[in-house]
């Protein structure tokens, strides 16, 4: 530890390194201690090492080093220097971005609140995302522990929006939230915004990211988990209306996709009304009956319903607003997560995931604009 820095200052630099590199405290300490706790040179060394090898160094077992337990956990906010900002921008631009033949998207409520087989189920979600090499992933009902699992499995391939902190009085295993994952080689992240719903008693919000593809094509991606249960129909409809308004506000040159667990009944959507220019992808792509119900207690026994009646609902939906001129065209709407977790008698979630494919207009590919 540098003699000029307090333990709080060192921890703040660890936090800064972790935020920039999306690693962990052990990796941060490894690099910082060898470079007199200089964040810029440590980040530079990290990325140079990462370019040479996919394996990250482990923390040295040096008895003279300060251990993580010896550092106070107080967080101190530090400004990133202008030179470091410029360096990071160069690093992001150095990533080789590839324009896919088809753009793929998953939206999925992964049932983080259910503690039964939670680790195994979350690992199955991460495995499916990785195997399918999905470009865009919108997840609902993520909790702190499942976020950590997803990050450990997917952060090399995907950038992830931040873990959301629970409000006062709510424990981390009770608080659930939404996140967005973006395949690093497919798109460049421009911005992230979180817009809480003023009328929510369940801490619900809209998470919105703006991205660019390799050919500078712009997308706005939005996810949400609208208010739950039948008795909250009124605030849920107000939230859906607000989400549609956010879609309409986006620039006409951007493709806008809003997907998530809407908890919506068809009668509620009819009352709100889908605005002109916005399309429900299940409807647009043929209303396939086998893909209609996303919370289906007849086919999915993760939730055991007493009696003969087995509810089947289309809670999860994808809405799409094309750019002008149209650059991305929806071509496939299906389900994922319909196979049981390997070696277990449960599915990854009590919801099926939505799996969508989009064609990228060839003229846009060729022009690169």
Characteristic key phrases:
369 residues, alpha+beta, Deoxyribonuclease I, Chain A, 2 domains, 6-stranded mixed β-sheet, 10 helices, 14 strands, disordered C terminus
Tell the overall outline: globular
**What structural class do helix, strand and pairing data support?**
alpha+beta
The tally of structural domains comes to 2
Determine the CATH topology of the largest domain.
Deoxyribonuclease I, Chain A
Task: Pick out the low-confidence regions.
Answer: 54-78, 365-369
Q: Output the radius of gyration.
A: 22 Å
What would CATH call the class of the largest domain? Alpha Beta
CATH-level-2 architecture of the largest domain: 4-Layer Sandwich
Spatially, the strands of the biggest sheet line up as: 3-4-2-1-14-13
Question: pLDDT average, as an integer?
Answer: 86
Q: How many E strands?
A: 14
Question: What is the secondary structure topology, with strand pairs?
Answer:
Elements: H1 7-21, H2 25-33, H3 39-52, H4 82-94, E1 102-109, H5 118-132, E2 136-142, H6 144-154, E3 158-160, E4 177-183, E5 187-196, E6 205-213, E7 218-225, H7 233-249, E8 255-261, H8 266-272, E9 279-280, H9 281-284, E10 295-296, E11 312-313, E12 316-321, E13 328-336, E14 353-360, H10 362-367
Parallel strand pairs: 1-2, 7-8
Antiparallel strand pairs: 1-14, 2-4, 3-4, 5-6, 6-7, 8-12, 9-12, 10-11, 13-14
Helix pairs in contact: 1-2, 1-3, 3-4, 5-6, 7-8
Briefly, what is this?
By secondary structure, this protein is of the alpha+beta class. Helix content is 30%, strand content 24%.
């Amino acid at each position: 530890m540098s003699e000029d820095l307090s333990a709080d200052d060192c921890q703040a630099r660890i936090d800064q390194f972790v935020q920039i590199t999306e690693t962990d405290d052990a990796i941060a300490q490894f690099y910082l201690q060898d470079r007199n706790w200089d964040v810029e040179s440590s980040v530079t060394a990290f990325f140079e090492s990462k370019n040479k090898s996919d394996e990250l160094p482990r923390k040295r077992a040096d008895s003279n080093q300060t251990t993580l337990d010896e550092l106070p956990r107080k967080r101190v906010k530090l400004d990133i220097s202008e030179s470091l900002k410029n360096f990071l921008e160069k690093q992001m631009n150095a990533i080789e971005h590839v324009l896919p033949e088809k753009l793929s998207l998953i939206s999925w409520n992964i049932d983080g609140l259910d503690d039964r087989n939670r680790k195994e189920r979350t690992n199955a979600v991460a495995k499916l995302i990785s195997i399918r090499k999905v470009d865009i992933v919108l997840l609902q009902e993520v909790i702190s522990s499942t976020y950590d699992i997803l990050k450990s499995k997917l952060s090399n391939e995907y950038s992830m929006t931040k873990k959301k902190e629970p409000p006062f009085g709510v424990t981390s295993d009770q608080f659930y939230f939404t996140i967005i994952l973006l395949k690093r080689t497919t798109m460049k992240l421009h911005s992230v915004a979180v817009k809480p719903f003023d009328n929510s008693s369940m801490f619900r919000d809209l998470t919105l990211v703006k991205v660019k593809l390799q050919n500078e094509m712009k997308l706005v991606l939005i996810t949400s988990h609208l208010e739950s249960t039948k008795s909250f129909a009124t605030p849920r409809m107000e939230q859906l209306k607000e989400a549609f308004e956010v879609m309409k506000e986006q620039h006409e040159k951007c493709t806008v996709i809003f997907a998530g667990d809407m908890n919506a009944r068809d009668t509620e959507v009819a009352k709100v009304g889908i605005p002109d220019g916005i399309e429900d992808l299940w409807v647009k792509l043929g209303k396939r009956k086998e893909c209609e119900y996303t919370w289906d207690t007849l086919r999915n026994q993760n939730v055991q319903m007493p009696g003969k009646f087995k509810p089947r609902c289309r809670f999860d939906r994808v809405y799409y607003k094309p750019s002008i001129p149209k650059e991305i065209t929806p071509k496939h709407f299906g389900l994922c997560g319909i196979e049981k977790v390997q070696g277990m008698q449960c599915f990854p979630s009590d919801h099926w995931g939505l799996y969508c494919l989009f064609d990228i207009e060839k003229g846009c590919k060729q022009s690169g604009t």
